[in-house]
Amino acid sequence: MKKALLFCLLFPALSTQAQQNLVKYVKPIIGTQKMGHTYPGATLPFGSVQLSPDTDTLSYELNGKYNGEVYKYCAGYKYEDKTIVGFSHTHFSGTGHSDLGDFLIMPTQGALKINPGTADAPKSGFRSAFSHKNETAEAGYYKVKLDDHQIQAELTASKRVGMHRYTFPKSADSHLILDLMSGIYNYDDKTVWTYVRVINDSLVTGYRQTNGWARTRTVYFAMSFSKPFKSYGQKNFDKKQVYGGFWRKFDQNNNFPEIAGKRIRMHFDFDTKEQEQVQVKFALSPVSQDNALENMRTEIPGWNFDEVKNQAQTEWNKELNKINIAASEDDKVNFYTAMYHAFINPTTYGDVNGQYKGLDQNAHKADGFTNYTTFSLWDTYRALHPFFNLIQPSRNNDMVKSMMAHYDQSALKMLPIWSHYANDNWCMSGYHSVSVIADAIIKGVYDGDAAKALEACITTANHRNYEGIGKYIDMGYIPAESSGTSVSNTLEYAYDDWCIAQIAKRLGKQEVYNEFIKRSGNWKNVYDKSIGFMRPRLADGSFKKEFDVLSTHGQGFIEGNTWNYSFFVPQDPESLMAAMGGKQKFAARIDSLFTMHLPDEFFADTEDITREGIIGGYVHGNEPAHHVAYLYNWAGQPWKTQERVRMILKMQYKPTPDGLGGNDDCGQMSAWYMFSSLGFYPVSPGSDEYALGSPSVKSASLALEGGKTFAVEAINQSDKNVYVQKVLLNGKILTGNSIKHDDITKGGKLTFYMSSRPVKSSK
């Protein structure tokens, strides 16, 4: 995914006693990074609501063109900013393109201001200055003092409802602004329509429809106040229309109960006593206002903010306790930060009654599963979904069922590419839902109709008019003339085809297996053996002459260069190694990737890659080479895998505000960290094997569904002892450099014996 600013939520060190109550020991550090971003705020694991502060209101466009500065606000929050505009209810975590930021609320007092103002003149609007010294972020809870208004803001959430608590000073002019125009990656025409209905002096419902990354997205809401407002009003910023109807008979700006338009901000006014608390419950629904109200009444029926906060933190406590580790203090911070990030997305997309909006824009009911959205699949198929197959298998089962529902409702009959609020935003390449489906089937996680799932995968893989698939099928590669990302698409399709072959093999579909295992070898058609790199190939069969192996821009790859992508054959490292000249040359090539220097000029035009995420020429801050450090295992040099993995863990993940060396991409960077910290990694999802590496934990206990426990222990663990002397599985020597999924899910113990000296053998 594209990269932007990072907001790190970092967990502090946990004592042994804390392991039974992780959340109480969580004091997240708020931070940022030159790449990537997440957000502070209140959400539940996989919750529909992600209630968080937004620190500015930059437009996606400037003078009719893309505004590069908006890239820093993919999550709405930028650590360096000095002001907060308000608190909105939906956010993406760690993506580098964006949307959402729905329904921004801002408490103010004093003269009513209905514009947000600007960062350099904050008092010209309703935004407020704030200080990180007066800011607290915990799992399920956020607090900040709004200095200009002398208001303390607190946020918590249930799965579908955000809860606000604002402590006001004494004032006859206290306000709650509801900004229905605000959004992330916003522009003037993004809001298609907004409707608000004031039911009474403490309940408001409505919806808004936007056209952005999701082309057709409608979100319904119900908003309830703990204290009746004394008055209310709105300002409509719509451009003057040729025809406005006869609503002009009414004064719609003041105390009028039915509001509609494209660009609306509302205000609700109160008298407040000194230190009086006004609370707001704000429920979301993808289906209707009635469902939003039902979500609110079901999940947060009362007004006990602290109880809701405690419930949220109890839920986080439950999830974070699924893995308990013993490690250095810094590694504990990193690990539980990663675990938190991994459990934010995908997000629940449905109401308490099971209803959700489908890709066909109709209301559906999830039968026997929870419906999810926010599938950033180009990123998350690599490690996040495999991680779920171990730690969240029931949820991942539901996620696959959500993908199948997406397929059933798709007018194009395709599985999701990037699922987003009853839309596919078609971002990135490949059809990696088939990887997630294959991994779940091969590992026994998916309990649905596997034959139908295979049919959906095949249909998607044969959609000829989608991003070069027809030419790929006919020619065995995508010609450079047809696509600016012809090489990376070819490589990704080949891997996905291998995944389809694994499902077919599992189901005994030999003809399907033969077809797709052959297609999985198409990577060879873009490998130029004369230079030893993947390279754009023209329709006449020749390789493109003008080619730069270092550049990440205009060379046939998406978010990467050929140095990184030339190792993207996770389905068949043996054949790739043979093509590159055998074990020694293959290992030497990986050595060069990690030790070379990639000058800034070669990624200057690719905003997704910056220096912080690069080691040599290896771009860890982006995903395509995440498996590469483990390929030394195939080259008979596992000690180099161990060395590189531990180096990456230290260099790219730090317990500091700028501690993540790249965009988290909805949990992919975090899942890489957790797998690698535990000592194994899914090089090729769709396989039942994990490649062994070098654990950074001293020990870990994984609480698996069904009551089984899998333990990891690293004897003689230290920062210097990165090399593995031997590995025991349940007390028996483990030969080879991998472990099977069943070895973990059956429960047991994996023991690494660590040393400062590598074991060099000719495996």
TrEMBL record:
Pfam families: Glyco_hydro_92, Glyco_hydro_92N
Ranges for domain Glycosyl hydrolase family 92 N-terminal: 25-285
GO cellular component, one term: cytosol
InterPro entries in alphabetical order: 6-hairpin_glycosidase_sf, GH-type_carb-bd, GH92_a_mannosidase_put, GH92_N, Glyco_hydro_92, PNGase
Domain named Glycosyl hydrolase family: residues: 291-755
Required cofactor(s): Ca(2+)
Gene3D superfamilies: 2.70.98.10, alpha-1,2-mannosidase (1.20.1050.60), alpha-1,2-mannosidases domains (1.20.1610.10), GH92 mannosidase domain (3.30.2080.10)
Leader sequence residues: 1-18
GO molecular function annotation: carbohydrate binding; peptide-N4-(N-acetyl-beta-glucosaminyl)asparagine amidase activity
UniProt subunit comment: Monomer.
Protein name: Alpha-1,2-mannosidase, putative
Source organism of the structure: Pedobacter caeni
